[in-house]
Design goal:
The structure is a homodimer.
Chain A lengths: L3 E7 L7 H13 L5 E7 L3 H5 L3 E3 L5 H6 L22 H13 L2 E8 L1 H17 L4 E6 L15 H22 L6 E6 L6 H6 L12 E3 L7 H15 L2 E6 L27 H13 L3 E5 L2 H5 L6 H19 L5 E7 L7 E7 L24 H7 L11 E2 L2 E2 L20
Parallel strand pairs in A: 1-2, 1-4, 4-5, 6-8, 6-9, 7-8
Antiparallel strand pairs in A: 2-3, 10-11, 12-13
Helix pairs in contact in A: 1-11
Chain lengths: ~425, ~425
């Protein structure tokens, strides 16, 4: 095998463990220097390849690379940038090939979600179409947990743990004050299209009646009357009601609750928030005192409470990607496959990218309780292993000691610049 | 000393470590059974004393009581209920004395903030005025960090750590995506009257230029032009701007930003949120893509990321309260006193309640940078020790294993009930 460099890029919304995958890629490549010379990381994802802004990871110490495993967000920078089809934008692909050629890149590792899987598949096809040999391997990552074939997506387990822990803690707070104060608490979580993250809030409950009492999924059409009735029942029975609401919660006609018409003092339409919308509903119709929280980026960057299982899997898919490349694979993704035994086990297997790209995995209906407001035992069995174990980062001065990269750029070789 | 029972109650907004104080009280009392027979805890705070709903803590195992040290929120229930003056509502005080007499209570431990210190002082005066001997000791607790004499208030250090960690993590997220996505991130935190909690966000920065780039304090009048200019400068210089905003941020005339006129679709005024108000401002005036988070109860219940220093101090003030009672003290509060050496040390000393009640400690102006948008080195020196150390709870099934009390109620002895 000829000695080539590798290109690695992070794509889309970042997670608490995407850098653990980067760590897996770089550490594994370093163990195979006879085949992979250097790993160049795209500055701000694929944009870095187009603009020839390549970070030379060989300039980072082993200690720094190891520290990526406990560092959240995208250390090399990420972006939301989807390549069009080769027919639609040939120039972009020609540019990529130019950059790859100039820097002797033979391996393309793309760390992202569904859109990136599609981009990665297109890159893998360049080899044939454009006569430049490159192996493209997709490394799964998405808090949305919506990639097919893989049992779960690295990044999801840690958000799930954050949401479960936060739901449990905030509910204890409400429970202790509800006799004279707040009776309804709403936590808004991510998940525009699928309720996986909201579902994880259900793991806060250890037994029947525990909070959360209501989970709102995008998959279940929101019914105001049913919802308010359920809130009232919960307050009557438990003294309070905790609600975990997906940002994607929507009415039957597909209108998001978050878009349901809040305007500011100037009459401008406000980008909502499901939580305040629900809170107003509760206040106006039931008169209960409420509080609400919006976790936003806090949930997907919360490396301090990452799932150990998630960290391990994120590293493993990075490592496996390099191993697959070394084995001559192209257009594949290392997928996490769950064992069949009752005790949770997992292994990494190869999935063809053609079956991954552009397929969105929704939450099965039997993961949601009949009334649509909670998770089932089946969902719990699926979700629970993914939040197991704690993997604490080291601390310095009371805050996590996250990696800081030197980010030494590879000298540019191309005369032409490229505007994205 | 005659053998009496003790009454313990939690008051006001709960914290991640108020139960650690409860643990300190109960464990210490158990070591002095020759003087303190039993500790009865008020169900839902002082209301439990008025309604004779007393939880017999002697029915809880040593293991459960020990677990309180790692359990957030108020395990016995808390309330917001301020006793009026004896002149204004004699009936309440007479009722308290009745309940105390009926249950042979000679020690009153009240775990709360400024209002509770005032209540505690009033109870201590009952002894003289109403001829019933009782020793009243106040145990400091408040995330607001606004009690005088004590160097800091148990509960604050853990919120501070949560805010510092969250600010750091979310900022890494924004930094990694800002080239093509969100440029401004706003985290709204508690602190209606004082900026202590917002200030703690400043601890996320390890060096000049690190996020957060802007902190908004209630102490500094909000100036829209100056604010927007600072946001723009920050985006230009760092590529993004992280803002930590106190919920109490206000204009010069005292109007809260959170009240600045958002109405819902029906024209009802909405209880705002500083973060969305600022986000709209940024969007409309500068056009930057933004995200915002509202931590709400998550911040004060986040026992999973509690400060070890805070947990230790919370326990220590509970323990010291019992020791002061045993030493015959009345109308005092164990205060945390900072040592004078450069290395952080602290000890517990007695503070007279008359000097604690109704005094609010604001943040000194020299803790806030000249431009009003950040903390000074002096603030950092004060704040940093309070978030030191991690004190992780045990986990079960991926979520913290928090204490669950049996809550065995003491048999009522009074014929009359009391309505609060």
């Amino acid at each position: 095998m000829a000695k080539k460099n590798a290109f690695y890029a992070q794509s889309g919304g970042v997670t608490a463990v995407i850098n653990a995958s980067a760590c897996g890629v770089i550490e594994t490549a370093r163990q195979h220097k006879q085949h992979i010379a250097k790993v160049y990381a795209g500055h701000n994802g694929i944009i870095g390849a187009l603009t020839e802004e390549l970070i030379d990871t060989s300039k980072e110490t082993a200690r720094t690379i190891a520290a990526l495993k406990h560092t959240p967000s995208g250390a090399f920078g990420s972006c939301r940038y989807k390549l069009k089809s080769i027919e639609q934008n040939l120039a972009e692909y020609e540019r990529l090939i130019e950059v790859f050629k100039a820097h002797n890149i033979g391996y393309f590792f793309y760390n992202g979600g569904g859109d990136s899987a599609d981009t990665c598949l297109k890159i893998s096809q360049l080899s044939e179409r454009m006569g430049y040999p490159i192996q493209a391997i997709h490394i799964p990552k998405t808090v949305d947990n919506d990639l097919p074939i893989t049992d779960n997506c690295p990044g999801f387990g840690s958000v799930a743990k954050y949401v479960a822990v936060s739901t449990k803690e905030a509910s204890l707070d409400v429970a202790s004050m509800c006799a004279t104060s707040t009776k309804v608490f709403i936590l808004e979580v991510m998940g525009r299209h699928a309720g996986w993250i909201a579902a994880a809030g259900g793991l806060a409950a250890q037994q029947e009646g525990d909070a959360p009492h209501i989970i709102l999924f995008p998959e279940i059409a929101f019914n105001k009357e049913k919802f308010l009735r359920k809130v009232q029942q919960s307050v009557k029975k438990h003294g309070f009601c905790t609600i975990v609401a997906s940002e994607g919660a929507q009415y039957k006609d597909g209108t998001f609750l978050a878009d349901a018409g809040t305007v500011d003092a100037f009459g401008h339409k406000q980008l909502g928030g499901v939580a305040p919308t629900l809170a107003n509903m509760v206040k106006q119709e039931l008169g209960f005192k409420y509080h609400w929280a919006l976790a936003d980026y806090l949930q997907r960057s919360a490396r301090h409470i990452a799932s150990a299982c998630d960290v391990e899997q994120a590293y493993a898919v990075g490592k496996a990607a390099v191993e697959m490349a070394l084995a001559g694979k192209n257009a594949v993704m290392p997928a996490i496959i769950r064992g069949k035994s009752k005790r949770y086990t997992w292994s990494i297997q190869e999935a063809p990218l053609s079956k991954v790209a552009n397929v969105e995995r929704m939450m099965p209906r039997n993961f949601i309780s009949r009334d649509g407001f909670n998770i089932t035992e089946k969902a719990r069995e699926y979700l629970a292993p993914l939040i197991q174990g704690e993997d604490y980062p080291p601390y310095k001065n009371g805050v996590p000691d996250y990696a800081t990269l030197k980010k030494v750029f590879v000298a540019k070789k191309l005369k032409q610049t490229f505007k994205v």
